[in-house]
């Protein structure tokens, strides 16, 4: 197994329809579900092409178990023949794919750079340090439209900062000033409506447990948003 090993393994998993649960996978699911606790819902169990492991998908997370569902493996599966590519992350991104057209874009901060032909959406918290790192990457990317959904999950004052940014005269500029330059937006007028609560519900529905979460217009989630070349490639691939 050489250069394309990781892609082939990931593709073989993605190709399996959700309804094609085999009797063996159903058996594993029945065994592992009660062992994970009543508060954890198992979304799917899928036999993997590596090591006889079974993938357990639950609430956006991925774990692995053996054929007896006795042992639980928590961590990454990496492909040592392909630069230690993180197969678990690749699979998680595949499972997190969305229908981009169903996103309520009116509830997002819209930023247009250049011709804006390439499109992406980002779930972000104003107190997220990795979001600041993402925007260091985005500073060097042009010809893109970015829809920012404010997801207030990291701090008690995240919702307050998001409210002030959302209610600013120029939301895109207020967001840029804050996330890039740490310049706070003016206090929002009393009673200014925000999509904060809807954003939390939207994030929960899509199992968004951390920020930033980056989606390309084809609906795929990318774990390469801090790599400008990889992000450029994914954005450009969606433009005809």
Word description of this protein:
The chain is α+β, with helices and mostly antiparallel strands. The protein is built from eight helices and eleven strands. The strands form three sheets. It has a five-stranded mixed sheet with strand order 7-9-8-10-11. Strands 1-2-3-4 form a four-stranded antiparallel sheet, sandwiched between helices. The protein has a two-stranded antiparallel sheet with strand order 5-6. The model is unreliable at 1-19 (pLDDT under 50).
What key phrases describe this protein's structure?
single chain; 240 residues; alpha+beta; five-stranded mixed sheet; four-stranded antiparallel sheet; 8 helices; 35% helix; globular; disordered N terminus
Give a nutshell description of this structure:
With 240 residues, the protein is an alpha+beta fold. Helices cover 35% and strands 19% of the residues.
SSE blueprint and pairings:
Blueprint: H1 5-14, H2 23-36, E1 44-47, E2 54-58, E3 61-65, E4 72-73, E5 78-79, E6 85-86, H3 87-95, E7 109-113, E8 118-124, H4 129-138, E9 144-150, H5 158-166, H6 171-181, H7 196-205, E10 213-216, E11 221-222, H8 228-237
Parallel strand pairs: 8-9
Antiparallel strand pairs: 1-2, 2-3, 3-4, 5-6, 7-9, 8-10, 10-11
Q: Give the number of helices.
A: 8
What's the SSE pattern? Answer: HHEEEEEEHEEHEHHHEEH
Biggest sheet: strand arrangement:
7-9-8-10-11
User: Which structural class matches the secondary elements?
Assistant: alpha+beta
Q: Report the portion of residues in β strands.
A: 15-25%
Tell me the total number of β-strands: 11
Q: Kindly state the percentage of residues in helix.
A: 25-40%
Write down the overall geometry.
globular
Terminal Cα separation, in Å?
33 Å
Largest sheet: 5 strands, mixed
Poorly predicted segments: 1-19
**Measured on Cα atoms, how large is the radius of gyration?**
20 Å
Tell me, rounded to a whole number, the average pLDDT: 85
């Amino acid at each position: 197994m050489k250069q394309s090993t990781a892609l082939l393994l990931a593709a073989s998993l993605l190709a399996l329809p959700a309804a094609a649960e085999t009797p063996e996978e159903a058996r594993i699911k029945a065994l592992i579900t009660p062992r994970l606790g009543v508060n954890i819902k198992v979304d799917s169990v899928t036999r993997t092409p590596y090591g006889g492991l079974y993938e357990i998908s639950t609430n956006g997370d991925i774990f692995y178990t053996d054929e007896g569902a006795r042992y639980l493996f928590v961590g990454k599966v990496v492909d040592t023949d392909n630069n230690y590519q993180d197969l678990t992350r690749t699979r998680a991104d595949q499972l997190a794919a969305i229908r981009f057209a169903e996103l309520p874009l009116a509830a997002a901060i819209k930023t247009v750079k250049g011709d804006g032909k390439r499109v992406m959406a980002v779930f972000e918290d104003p107190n997220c340090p990795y979001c600041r790192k993402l925007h260091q990457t985005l500073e060097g990317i042009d010809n893109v439209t970015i829809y920012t959904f404010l997801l207030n999950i990291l701090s008690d004052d995240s919702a307050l900062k998001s409210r002030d940014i959302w209610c600013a005269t120029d939301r895109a500029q207020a967001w840029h000033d804050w996330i890039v330059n740490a310049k706070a937006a003016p206090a929002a007028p009393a009673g200014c409506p925000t999509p904060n609560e809807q954003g939390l519900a939207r994030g929960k529905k899509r199992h968004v447990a951390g920020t930033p979460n980056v989606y390309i217009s084809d609906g795929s989630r990318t774990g390469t948003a801090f790599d400008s070349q990889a992000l450029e490639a994914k954005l450009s691939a969606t433009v005809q």
